[in-house]
Amino acid sequence: MLVITCPYCQEAREEEEFSYAGEAYIARPAVPEEADDATWGDYVFHRKNPRGWHWEQWQHVAGCRKVFAVKRHTVTYEIAGSWTLADGKALYLKEQA
Amino acid sequence: MSGYRIHRPGERINRQKPVSFQFDNVQYKAFSGDTLASALLANGVRLIGRSFKYGRPRGIVGFGAEEPNALIQLETGAHTVPDLKATQVELYQGLLAGSTTGYPSLDFDLKGLLGKFGRFMPPGFYYKTFMEPVKAWPVYEKYIRKAAGYGHAPVLPDPESYDHLHHHIDVLVVGGGAAGLWAATLAGRAGLKTLLVDEQSEMGGWLLTERRSRIDGLSGMDWVNQRLAELASLPNVSVLPRTTAFALHDLNLVQAVELLQDHLPLTERNAALPRQRLHKIRAHQVILASGAIERPLVFGYNDVPGVMTAAAGHSYLNRYGVAVGREVLVQTQNDAAYEAALDLAQCGVKVMLADARQGGAAAWRQQALKSAGVELLLGHGIAKVLGDKSVSGAQLVKLDGRNNQVVGSGPRLSVDTVLSSGGLTSTVHLFCHNGGRPVWNQQQLSFVCPDEGRDNIACVGAITGRWELSEALGQTHAAVAALLLGHGRGSSGNAPSVASEEVAAPRAIFRLPDGKPEGHGAKAFVDYQNDVAAADIHTAIRENYRSIEHVKRYTALGFGTDQGKLSNINGFAIAAEALGKPIAEVGTTTYRPSYTPVTFGALAGPHVGETFDVRRYTAMHASHDARKAEYEVVGQWLRPWYFPKPGEDLHAAVNRECLATRNSVGVMDASTLGKIDVKGPDAREFLNRIYSNAWSKLDPGKCRYGLMLDENGMVMDDGVTACLADDHFHMTTTTGGAARVYSWLERWHQTEWPELKVRFTTTTDHWATVAVVGPNSRQVLQKLCTDIDFDKDAFKFMDGRSGTVAGLPARVFRISFSGELAYEINVDANYGRYMWEEVMKAGAAFNITPYGTETMHVLRAEKGFIIVGQDTDGSMSPNDLAMSWAVGMKKPFSFLGKRSLLRSHTAGEGRKQLVGLLPLDPKVVLAEGAQILSNTDDTVPAAMQGHVTSSYHSAFLGRSIAMAVLKDGSKREGDTVFVWAHGKSVPAQVVSSVFVDKEGVRQHA
Amino acid sequence: MPKQGFQPFMESPLHHFKLDAEAQPRRADGRIWCNELPHLGYAVLRGDTAEAGFAQLVEQVTGLALPLKAGAVSQGPQGVLMWTSPDEWLLVSHRQRLADWTAQLDAGFAAQQLFAQTVDSSGGLTLAWLGGTQHITVLRHLGVYDFESIPLGHMVSTVLGKATVQVIRLDGDGVFVLFRRSFADYVWRLLRRAAQPYGFAVCQLEARSDHPLFAQLAAPQPLLVSA
C-alpha cells in the first residue's frame, strides 16, 4: 500500500483513503469537433504506461475529495512528491520541455 | 521408543504442571511448556505422517517453523485446524491432535506400497502418465486428489473471533534473539517508539537452546531476562511474543499475526477476546533480526523417522528436556553441530560424530568431544540410513578431502537417531518480499542479507551470515547505532561483550555422495514435504529446465507449508552442481508472503458476519421489516425486493403489486437514489457539459431526465435533475452510480473546468424519498398536503414543488419511472419513516400497495425505460438506446462524449441497439442474458446477434415481455429472432421497447 | 412547525438499536463507553476564503471563527465548525439553531453576492461519542490512520472498516465519530465489535452546557429545518 501526501490535508495518508484518477495533464482537445478520429481516439484511449516516473492524479475520496497530482515511479513505487493540479502542472511542463 | 526425558538445567518446561493430550486417539502425558513435537518425542512417538507422493514413513525433523513433515490436524469439529506444524503447537491440557496422512492408517499406508516403485515416479509423473486420453483426466484427477494432500479444512463456521490492529511506529524489530533484543534495547533507550515481535512463546531465539555462551558475564538467558526487564520498563517499547511477521510490503508495511489464545485449552479461551490478531505495522525503520535456520545434509534415506537436524536434537534436549535417542550419530560439515553432540554426550547419550571435513572442527572442540566420550569419524559421510519406520543404523563412506566423491567404505553403525547439520541458512524471507535480493556468501555457505543498501531496512545478526554471537552482536550494535544517528539520536552503552572462539571453516558440501550415480542409490530427499529427491533435480535439469524457478515448478521443490526453509539451499546447490554453475549464479527462487501460513480468520479480522461488508439502510427500513419485505442488495443498500402476502411467492407478489400500482396506487422507497446538490452561477453550464442533453432552458420548478456519457460517448449514468433556482439544481443518480457520479463531477470540475463557479454536495443520505405511483397518487398527495396545488395543469409532469407534506417541509417532484402519474416526496431522513407511514395512512382508502425493486423493474420495462448497468454495459451510446432525443448536438460546448458519437465506429452500422422482444408464446419468459440468433441453425460457432437484457412477465399486459440489445436492432422491428438458453431456442418478435402507453397519456394524467 | 393533525416524529440513524434503553451512567472502568448524539443539525458550508466578507459573515452569524488549517475545529458553546476541505466546512449545532444560522448565512451570501452556500445535511449524518481509556485503540483496530496523532481540537476524515468517517477529537476523554445515516448500522456494529474485548457499554450522555457538542442535546424536539 502506498502512502500518499494530500497537498490539501497536508498529511501523508494511507492509499486506502484515495482513489486513482488516471494519468495527469492529458489535454482535452480545445475544439473536439476539429480533432480527427485518430487524434480524438488518442485522447480518449491512449495512456503513457511508462516504466519509470509517471505523473498521475489521485483523489482524496475519504478526505477532502480534492484531485491532485502525484509523480510516482511505477517500478519502485517511490513518490517524488504531490502537488495541487496547478502547482504540479508547472513542474510537469518544465519536465516535458 | 527412542526419545525420553532428561532433566536439563534451564529447561523451558514446567515439571510442576503436567498435561495430558491425545495423538491419533492415544493418550500421552507431557508438561506445560512443551510443544506437541517435544511431547511426542518425549513419549517415544516417531512416526507422525506419510509422505506426499510415496507414502514413506516420516517423523519430526525440525523444532520450529522449518518443520516439513510433522503436519498435524489439531482439534475437531468447528475448532479443527489443518496442517499445523507439531513443532509450533504449544501443548495445553486436553489437546487433541492427529496425523494428516496415511490411508487406511498411518502405520499401514497404501500409498506407501506405491512408493516402493518410486523410481518409476519421476517429476511430472502425473502429467506424463495420465496425459491420454484428455477426456479421462477428470476421472484420474478424482483418484489422484483422494490420495494426495494433507489434512482437511474445517466445514463448520469458525466459532472464534479475530481482529486487526494498526501500528504507526518508529522502529519494528523482527526477531527476539540476541540481535533483536539488543536492537530493541538500543532503539528503546533512544526514546523511539519500538515494537519487537517474535514468533515463539518466549524471547531468546537460539539462546533458548545454546547454554554455553556468556554475554557481559551473564548466562545467555540471564542476559535475555535482563533485556526483557529493561524493555518492559520503557513505555515507548512493546514486546509481542507468539507474533510472526509474515510479510513485508512496500514502505515498511509489515503484517504480523499474533496467536493470542491458541496456546490455551479450548475451554479456557475467553470468547470476548480474539483467538488471533493481525497487526498491520507501518514502521519508519524495520530491523530484521530473524536469524538463521539450520539445514540438514542430503543423504540416502535421510527421511527415515529419527533423522533430524542437529539444531532440533540440541533444542529438544536443552529446551524441553527430551533426549531424542540413546545412540545418536551426528553428521556435520561445520563446527556448530559439535555443540549438540557435546550436550547430548554429557547427558549420557552415546554419541558418534561424522564430519565431512578431513580436519574436523577447531581443535578445542574436538578435544571437548573426545573428553565427553564422543567417537569422531573425520572425513566421513552417511551413504544411507538403515531402518524403515525408525532409524536402526547408518552406513558410512569415506569422503575425498577435496572433491565430492567417495574414496572408500566406512563403518556401518548401529544407532537409533541421526542428527545432521549442513550449516545455517539465513532467514532472508522478509527482506526479499518486496524486491530485496539476498547475496551468496561462500564462506558461510548461505544466501544472506547484505548489510546495507535498503532504505529504512536494517539487517542484523545471523540474517547477515554472522553465525558467531560475538560478531552478530557487534554488527547489531554498529548497525543500530548508525540507524539511530540517522534519526538524530545517539546510542547508549557499548556492544555486549562475548568472548570470540576459534572456528574452522565449514565444508561446501550439500549432498553427501554414496559412490553411485544420482538416481541409482538410496533416495536422498531434498524437500521432504513434496518428496523431492536429489535425483529429481538432476532429472529436471536433464530435461532442460535451466532456470531455478522452472526447476522449482517442475519438481515442486520449496512449495508447501514449510516454503522450503530446510530444502531450498540444498536444492539450489544440487541444481548448481548439475548445471555446472556456481550457486551464486543459479540464484534463489522468489520469496513471497507469507513466511508461515496465516489463517483466513486472521486475514478477515472483523470483516465477517454482520460486519463483513457495509449494509446501507434507508430511514424506512423498520417499516419494510414490519410489512415483511424480502430484500435484495443493490450497491450495498438493502432494498425491499417485494412484499409477499401470506402464501405468495415472488411472482404472485409482483403481479399483485404491478396491478395495484397501475390500477390504483403503489408506493416505493426511492431513498437509495443518489442525490447531489449542484449550486453556483455556472451550475447550468456545468450540467450542459456533463449531461448529453441541454439544460439552458430548464426553468426553476422544472425537472429533466439527464443522460451522462463518458468521453467514449457511452452511457454511464442517468437520472432526473430538478431546477430549484436559476443557479441551484437537485441532481439524482442511479443507486449504484451515486459515488461514481459524485467523483466524476468533482474530477471534471477540478481537472478541466476549475474556472466554472459551481459546487457539488452529496445529499443522498439527507433526503428520504417516498415515490407515490399510480392513478390515485394525486389524491393521496392531496390528503397530505394543502399548500401545493396538485391540479394537473398547475403541477405538471416533470414539475417540482417545495411545500409542506404531512406537516413537514418537503420537496415534491412529479416524475415517473413507471409511466404512471407519480410523485416523489423528499423529506429530511430523520422523518423518513414518519412520512412513509403517513403516506400509507393517506393511501389506505385506495388500497395503497408498497412495492419493491422487482415491481419497479417490471413497471419500467413495460415502458421501455432502461436501467443503466442492466440494459447497458458500457458499450451503448444514446443512439443505440434510441435516445437521440436526449442528445443536444447543437449545444455550444462540446459536452462529454459528444465527439465520440461521431467516430466512425460509434456512428457506424452493425452496432447492438435496444429493442423490445415479444416471445411468440406469451407464457414464456426469456432468460436474461440469453444469446439471440437469427435462425435455428446449429452451426458452430453461431452468429450471435445480441442478448436479452431484461425479461419479465407483465401482469398488466397478461404476457411476457423483454428488452434486448440486437445488432442493427433499430431497423429490425417485425423480425423474428431466436433466443437460445438452457439448450432451447425460443422464437420472439422484435418490437418497440415501449409496451404500455406509447403516447404517455398515463404519466401526463 | 408541524401543522395540526400531523404529529411528525424523528428517528435518528441509530434509532433501531434502542440505545437509550441500555444506557447507563458512565463509570471510570476500563470499558469502552459509547452512545449516539441524535438529531443534531448539520450543514455543509461552501465558500471561498479569498472572497472578502465570507469568513466575517460566517463568524458574525455563528460566533465561530472559520477554521483555515486542515482538520482544524472551531468550538463554541453553540456548536462547532470544522474544516473538511479548502472550500468546505461542516457546521454542527442544535437543529433549530442550525436552521436559523443557515437561513441567515444564505441570505447574507446572496446579499453580498458571495459564491458561497450552505447545504442542509441534518437528515444524512449522525455523531457517536466513544470514550474510555482504550478508545483510541478501538479506532486502531478498525482504521489505518494514526489516530493517536490527532491533535486535540482537530478532526480527521478517514476510513473505518469500509466506511468513510470523520473522527473529531476535542479532548483526551473520548472522540466523536461522524458518519452517514446509511452507513450508521455498519459503523455502530463495527465499533461495538472492536470494543468488545475491552467491554462495551452504552452511556447516558448529559447535555453539558459548557460543551460545544453535548450542549446541543439540550433543547426539545422535534424541530425542523426548511426544505
From TrEMBL, chain A:
InterPro entries registered for this protein in UniProt: SoxD (IPR006279), SoxD_sf (IPR038561)
GO molecular function: sarcosine oxidase activity
Biological process according to GO: tetrahydrofolate metabolic process
Highest rank taxon of the organism: Bacteria
Pfam family, one: SoxD
Protein name, UniProt field: Sarcosine oxidase subunit delta
Organism: Aquitalea palustris
From TrEMBL, chain B:
Domain of life: Bacteria
Residues of the SoxA A3 domain: 523-605
MF (Gene Ontology): sarcosine oxidase activity
Any one Pfam family match given in the protein's UniProt record, by short name: Fer2_4
Keywords: Oxidoreductase
UniProt cross-references to InterPro entries, sorted A to Z: 2Fe-2S-bd_N, BFD-like_2Fe2S-bd_dom_sf, FAD/NAD-bd_sf, FAD/NAD-binding_dom, GcvT/YgfZ/DmdA, GcvT/YgfZ_C, GcvT_C, GCVT_N
Domain FAD/NAD(P)-binding: 170-439
Domain Aminomethyltransferase C-terminal: 912-997
Domain GCVT N-terminal positions: 620-891
Gene3D superfamilies the UniProt entry points to: 2Fe-2S iron-sulphur cluster binding domain, sarcosine oxidase, alpha subunit, N-terminal domain (3.10.20.440), BFD-like [2Fe-2S]-binding domain (1.10.10.1100), FAD/NAD(P)-binding domain (3.50.50.60), Probable tRNA modification gtpase trme, domain 1 (3.30.1360.120)
GO biological process: tetrahydrofolate metabolic process
Family statement drawn from the similarity comment of this UniProt entry: Belongs to the GcvT family.
Stated name of the protein: Sarcosine oxidase subunit alpha family protein
